[in-house]
Amino acid sequence: INKHMIFDRAYAHLVKLDLNNSFHIDTLLDRGDDTFLQACDLALEHFTESEEYEKCSVIKKFKDFIHNSSG
C-alpha cells in the first residue's frame, strides 16, 4: 500500500461525514483530537503536493469546524 492510497482512503471516509447530522457532529467533535488534526495536516500537505486542492478544501473545512467548535 502506498502513501497516496492511504490518504485517498482516509479522504473517502472523511467526505462521508455530514455536518448537518448531529451524530456526525458529536462524533467528529469527540474524536477530533490533536492526533486527528495532525493527520489532517499531513493529508493537507500530501494533497497540496499532488495539487489536489479540492480535497484540501474539504479537509480544511473539517479542521476549521473542529477549531471553531472547541472554542
Q: What would you say this structure looks like, in words?
A:
- With 71 residues, this protein is mainly α.
- The protein is 77% helix and 0% strand.
- 8% of the residues are buried.
Q: Main β-sheet: number of strands, strand sense, barrel status?
A: none
Q: What is the count of helical runs?
A: 4
| Total number of beta strands | 0
Radius of gyration: 12 Å
Q: Average pLDDT across residues?
A: 94
The proportion of residues in beta strands is under 5%
The general outline is globular
Write the element-wise H/E pattern from the N-terminal end onward: HHHH
Q: Unreliable runs, pLDDT <50, ≥5 residues?
A: none
Structure at a glance:
This protein is an all-alpha fold and 71 residues long. Helices cover 77% and strands 0% of the residues.
Helix/strand layout:
Blueprint: H1 3-14, H2 22-31, H3 34-49, H4 53-69
Helix pairs in contact: 3-4
Feature tags:
77% helix, mainly alpha, 71 residues, globular, 4 helices
